Amino acid sequence: MADDRLAAAAQAAAEGFAAELAQFVALPSVSALPEHRGDVARAAQFVADRLRQAGMPEVTVWATDGHPAVFAHRPAPPGAPRVLVYGHFDVQPPDPLDRWQTPPFAPEVRQGLMFGRGVSDDKGPLLIAIRAVGALLAAGGPPAVDLAFLVEGEEEVGSPHLPDLVAAHREALAADLVISADGGMWRADLPSLTLGAKGICGLEFTVSTAAHDLHSGRHGGGVPNALHVLAELVAGLHDAAGRVSVEGFYDRVVPPDTAERRQVASLPFDEAAYLRENGLGAVTGEAGYSTLERQWLRPTLDLNGMWGGFQGEGSKTVIPCEAHAKVSCRLVPDQSPEEVLDLLERHLERHCPPGAKLEVRRSPGRAQPYVLRRDHPAVQVAAAVLEQVLGSPPLFVRMGGTLPCAELFAQELGAPTLFFSFAVADERIHAPNEFFRLNRVAPGIRSWAELLRRLGADLRREGTRR
Amino acid sequence: MADDRLAAAAQAAAEGFAAELAQFVALPSVSALPEHRGDVARAAQFVADRLRQAGMPEVTVWATDGHPAVFAHRPAPPGAPRVLVYGHFDVQPPDPLDRWQTPPFAPEVRQGLMFGRGVSDDKGPLLIAIRAVGALLAAGGPPAVDLAFLVEGEEEVGSPHLPDLVAAHREALAADLVISADGGMWRADLPSLTLGAKGICGLEFTVSTAAHDLHSGRHGGGVPNALHVLAELVAGLHDAAGRVSVEGFYDRVVPPDTAERRQVASLPFDEAAYLRENGLGAVTGEAGYSTLERQWLRPTLDLNGMWGGFQGEGSKTVIPCEAHAKVSCRLVPDQSPEEVLDLLERHLERHCPPGAKLEVRRSPGRAQPYVLRRDHPAVQVAAAVLEQVLGSPPLFVRMGGTLPCAELFAQELGAPTLFFSFAVADERIHAPNEFFRLNRVAPGIRSWAELLRRLGADLRREGTRR
Lengths: 466, 466
Hints:
The structure is a homodimer of 466-residue chains. By secondary structure, chain A is α+β, with helices and mostly antiparallel strands. Chain A has 15 helices and 19 strands. The first copy, chain A, has helices at 3-14, 17-25, 37-54, 119-138, 162-168, 170-173, 216-219, 226-235, 258-266, 271-278, 291-296, 337-351, 377-390, 404-413, 441-454, and strands spanning 58-62, 69-74, 82-88, 108-110, 113-115, 146-152, 177-180, 192-194, 196-197, 199-208, 214-215, 300-309, 318-319, 322-331, 357-362, 370-371, 395-397, 417-419, 435-437. In chain A, strand 1 (58-62) and strand 2 (69-74) form a beta hairpin. The radius of gyration of chain A is 23 Å and the shape is globular. At the A-B interface, strand 10, strand 11, helix 7, helix 8 and helix 11 of A face strand 10, strand 11, helix 7, helix 8 and helix 11 of B.
């Protein structure tokens, strides 16, 4: 099959893409919010239909105790290597709603960018992968591999049912390589391949200091205030040098080696532009590391939410009896989510003052940190494809984000995961005014089709840890 | 007029009180919430009607740019001393709603206690004062004083329009003494008179760190988190000894003298019972002072609300770009609200780290600290009345709470304020399950009637500051 035939088929497969993506984004498939259960199910059905249209002969919706997942399969002759494509159709909650320029579930295209919740994470990149199958078949070149898709509906809540699902369907999902349509390139103007992702774990904690809110006139100055206690605990999670203060947090961290730091330092990073793009006044973080090192190579701890007391208009002179915080940590090799949660919980208990009660609820979503070897054959093929389609060799980067399933696939299927997404890291995922670049659609479809065509016999079961 | 005739009239005036109070409490007159504007107006009308029924010949509803106030007047022969009764018909917001055993605006009586928002602060005590006028007239003894009422609808939002109202009606409100139906006795089993109240001031501040929320995977570890900044600022408002860390906060504080501390130390205070009643695990506060000293004699700073980021079910891995806090301070002589706000704002600005933007909004409600001299003639009469009706001489106490109008009356009318409320400090005001003791109604009406009968020529214009 000539390359130009595939390029033409990819171009054809890009037709009507925006309209279909807009339909997909209009489904408010927010997995975190129970009231959107039906919408998540409708998004599953949407994905199943698209997979069938693209030419996947077997498509099934798998129920779980939470949201469903979609499985699709296209067999190849025995002995062909097996590739599993991963993605997700659920999205983050859209709040704060008042910060969106246009409604999050009424997608709009402005200057080549489509705006809407989930358009970049992960609906646009997923649809690219699906349409690539159609393009490859249209060009007359069926994939050289046994091809399966697993598209889940719980990624944004930490994939709580994915481990059981994968364990239950280990045969159907068996793969030599997983390719993820989730993730994202580092910059829009330079191709990149992400060779590592952080792990994640989190918890919510509640501080209570009294049976009910107390009047600040009657009791002020004499009783603990849950907000003060919470603020002290939160402030105590980092030290003055920006390091996480949780005892033992860094014990298992593999320090970045000189080669790694040199590679990161060689990457173009325009701090002024970064600050401007995000409306930031300064970068901050752990002393002794650059911004990229902090984001890619070092473990972090962030508060995601914090609240207590009166939030309405005006004033209410109460001493709140309860305060809440949500915390999550991004982990690097060889930290383990469970151990970090243990350390964090112990730290909070140790620092909770007398007169305050602490209640900790661990979040179900967890992931191990993950790294893919640069000399893995899939990385070699992917790099060649990106160079061919996008015109320059890719940068090799790591991501601060998490792909909760990568470690799971390594453990359960023995397969490494290659991140191959056409999202870009600046597309405001998880934030208001999330967008996706529509000029990435055609090269994205072509690259996926090329990748699926070229991956072949050199795919071997390879180790997934460095 | 014989004392037993007044006692009988007071008893008669207590009939039907609970039903009428329940009607009053059922009006959700929450001054802080715009959607209750109509309810606040209805509460004003309710008060006006009750004052007319009690025998006040002139009753007017005064409009303001905010909520209305009610004025009533019953003239006496020229030369009679003038007494102004103060109270309020607005209430605090009822949230958190899920902590109420019965709905806040569907008052219910359980074991002699009426439960509902505003029943103790200040609807029950106010209705007692109004009915006392009726009892006094029914017993054939009109007040020996020229009597006026000023009942406002903005006490719970800091009385923003009261200063203009009092200035505009200085003639009509001219008084030798103000008696407040707002306030409360220290304990249910011991009469007490409150001879001082704290001042108050407050502000809300917002910390912003970016133009929008950022994904904690992409940006975590490299950018400021508004919640971390806020927590640091809040934690930095107190030092390890429980003192307020705001530079200059204590500069104008008059330290309690030995006599004052000895008097407080002599009061019965059962710490174990206090902890039990409020579900507290410990008392805390400024080192070197007892709980009562902290609450009555020392200035305090409390967070009333704090929020930012994701508060819903589940998790959302954002780095929030904005966080908010509401702070209020209780002040003692000779602190000034404006000066403390200046100090607090300067402190926050000085400690706000690079990369974070601070926005401060001062709350409109402010009050000077206030102290009434123990040898004032009104204090003497009030003490005698309480001893006669309740059977033992009152304790003299101070309160941690604020009566924003007391200093205003001192400034504008040159009149001191006597706190004479039959609420008790443990009645969960500003909190869920606020209640009022119905067995205080009859003695309350009788005491008010006695007080209005006995106050006389010995009322002179007296200084209001110690």
